[in-house]
Design goal:
3-stranded antiparallel beta sheet; 10-stranded mixed beta sheet; Arc Repressor Mutant, subunit A; pyruvate-formate lyase- activating enzyme; alpha/beta; 2 domains; globular
Length: about 475
């Protein structure tokens, strides 16, 4: 495994700061096709039962009480909590559709509620949802299970944290983004420091094993001094994990972002300074770099998984469960069963209509080709372990690596010359200088990026930095 310490080279980051996929999957979601439907899903579910891998469940809760202007997630703004209750009823109907397709012997070792704002759901609704999941699937009771939920600290009633642990959740992820009041007003997410720290304490007091905090750099009105204060206040609570995301300003795709004033956004040099600050502050406080924009304390499971080559990326981010099939529940959710991807309808009405009619709510998907599987294995190793085991790829897929990837190796020559990777006889290794640019290295193996230099022609992707 490469050294987890990061080397910050502003000139290289500046030069490689193009647009590209985040590789939570390969092929990425823009490649999904509408001709992949319920019949395809059923067939891949059957095949995945034969393989009998453990399961990961992702459940999308789309509702939010108010809009955060930076957000690019699939969400619906409402203060009517009865909509959450109705949504849970539909989720239970969807669960029953999958219950007949997924073997009851398969253990669910990972479960994640994302959004939106999952704690939009009241305790009673959450209890009903978890009871339905227990009836439909064999939820793991082992300590190693990873049952997590995303939390908006602004909407955390007293006793909610205790209810979460009672229902089996052992991880929480708190959206914070920035604690500076000017930044918060600019993005319409005003959130007190004390209420955030109080929620962390409540979760830990109730027995939550791991706390993650999400921050964003590149937001309007962010300054290095203020962002340093945010970092230090957050680190004073010693969260087990931290994600420091780069804000992707794509107002043509996300309507809410049109309310952000472009002239208030940090420029390229200022963004690099914010990133440098995050890397230095987190490193000085003992956090290890996991990959992309994730950091964790040395005792966290993610660090252990990376050191043991058990780390994986999927639509929930980095995970310690490397050999599972993923089943997505709710509107817009994505499944990864065997060599296939599928996505539910992105709009609430279409998803509800399908579920109410006892139809699988599959909107689009993709059956992976042999080439997709080979490239997925390479890109997965780069994003998770920071190195490609050439011998393992050749033996597993029966290829001559140098011949099969001759075009990719040509594209990688620039990365070699810039010291971002090292090509050894049987390994390709991302160097300490290249770890922040692993996405750029992975792009060299992506056959769907149509430009001759290996860069994407699609506007779907955010900048690398």
């Amino acid at each position: 495994m490469p050294d987890e310490r990061l080397i910050f080279k502003a000139d290289l980051l500046r030069r490689y700061d193009l647009s590209g996929p985040r590789y939570t999957s390969y092929p990425t979601a823009p490649q999904f096709k509408p001709d992949f439907g319920p019949a395809h899903f059923r067939e891949y579910a059957r095949r995945s039962n034969i393989a009998n891998r453990p399961l990961s469940l992702y459940c999308h809760v789309p509702f939010c009480f108010s809009p955060c202007f930076y957000c690019g997630c699939t969400r619906l703004i409402t203060r009517d909590t009865t909509r959450g209750r109705h949504y849970v009823k539909r989720l239970l109907q969807e669960l029953r559709l999958y219950q007949s397709l997924i073997s009851p012997e398969r253990e669910v070792v990972q479960l994640h509620l994302g959004g939106g704002t999952p704690n939009f759901l009241g305790v009673r609704d959450l209890e009903e949802l978890m009871d339905g999941m227990k009836q439909a699937f064999r939820l793991s009771s082992r300590r190693e299970r990873d049952f997590s939920i995303e939390i908006d600290p602004r909407h955390m009633p007293e006793g909610y944290a205790s209810a979460l642990t009672h229902l089996g959740f052992n991880r929480v992820s708190l959206g914070v983004q920035d604690l500076d009041s000017q930044v918060q007003r600019a993005v319409n997410r005003v959130q007190g420091i004390d209420e955030t720290l109080d929620v962390i304490d409540a979760c830990r007091d109730s027995g939550v094993r791991s706390v993650n905090i999400d921050l964003i750099y590149g937001l309007p009105k962010q300054t290095p001094d203020a962002f340093r204060r945010t970092l230090r206040m957050v680190m004073s609570a010693r969260p087990d994990r931290l994600a420091v995301y780069a804000y992707a300003h794509l107002p043509a795709l996300f309507k809410g972002q049109r309310r952000i004033k472009s002239d208030e956004l940090p420029g390229p040099e200022a963004r690099l300074e914010l990133l440098r600050l995050a890397i230095e502050e987190l490193g000085a406080s003992g956090y290890r770099y996991i990959g992309l924009d994730h950091f964790a304390l040395p005792t966290d499971d993610l660090v252990q998984a990376k050191e043991g080559d058990g780390l994986q990326r999927n639509f929930m981010g980095y995970t310690t469960h490397s050999d599972t099939d993923l089943l997505g529940l709710g509107m817009s959710a994505i499944s990864h069963l065997g060599d296939s991807f599928s996505q539910n309808h992105r709009d609430l009405m279409s998803w509800e209509e399908a579920v109410n009619a006892d139809r699988l709510p599959v909107w689009r998907g993709l059956a992976l080709s042999e080439d997709d599987c080979i490239r997925s294995a390479v890109i997965g190793q780069l994003m998770c372990q920071g190195a490609v085991d050439v011998c393992a790829i050749e033996q597993r897929h029966h290829i001559d690596f140098a011949l099969y990837f001759r075009d990719a190796l040509v594209r990688l020559s620039t990365h070699v010359n810039d010291g971002l990777i090292r090509i050894e006889p049987k390994r390709i290794v991302v160097t300490t200088a290249g770890q922040m640019l692993a996405r750029s290295v992975a792009m060299c193996f992506d056959r769907y990026l149509s430009n001759k230099d290996g860069t994407p022609s699609s506007s779907h992707y955010s900048k690398l930095i």
